[in-house]
């Protein structure tokens, strides 16, 4: 070390010691009042249930080291909300998810577990608003107004 530069340190062996120390070219000193704590372990996901879910479904995630969780995701999409029940259980609500991994992020790291299937919302079927005329024979012309109509089949009519 050169003059004017101090080394500040705290070794892992100092766990529980309540002081920090400095060392420089003219000696060393320590000061009580600092407690070294080991970092929390990264989260680990063991399982989740259900494994298939739609938007709004609550999924239970089982594992360990969930305290301090800052984000939960489904297929890389952040959950609508989540609650840390305890260090080994999170309940998360699926947002606009995607199939793939369930992930849990804490300040100590991230863990993922594959096997989640997102169930997308079902698009609504056709909706008829009106039709004219309101009566007629099989040869009559009918006009209708509707939404979400796709050419899936050709309508037909058979006379009795």
Give a written overview of the molecule:
By secondary structure, the protein is an all-beta fold. It has a domain at 44-119: Immunoglobulin-like (Sandwich). The chain contains no helices and 14 strands. The protein has strands at 7-9, 19-24, 27-32, 44-49, 52-54, 58-64, 71-74, 77-78, 81-86, 89-93, 100-106, 109-119, 127-132, 143-147. The strands form 4 sheets. The chain has a 5-stranded mixed beta sheet with strand order 5-12-11-7-8, with no helix packed on it. A 4-stranded antiparallel beta sheet has the order 4-6-10-9, with no helix packed on it. The chain is rod-shaped. The N and C termini lie far apart (104 Å). The mean pLDDT is 79.
**How is the largest sheet built, in terms of strand order?**
5-12-11-7-8
Strand tally? 14
Question: Which structural category fits the helices and strands?
Answer: mainly beta
Low-pLDDT sequence parts: none
Share of helical residues: under 10%
- Using the alpha-carbon principal axes, give the shape: rod-shaped
Order of helices and strands: EEEEEEEEEEEEEE
CATH class designation of the domain at 44-119: Mainly Beta
Query: Gap between N and C termini, in Å?
Result: 104 Å
The major sheet is characterized as: 5 strands, mixed
Output the CATH homologous superfamily of the domain at 44-119.
Answer: Immunoglobulins
Q: Count of helices?
A: 0
Beta-strand percent range = over 45%
- CATH-scheme architecture of the domain at 44-119: Sandwich
Mean pLDDT: 79
**Mind telling me the C-alpha Rg?**
31 Å
Please name the CATH topology of the domain at 44-119: Immunoglobulin-like
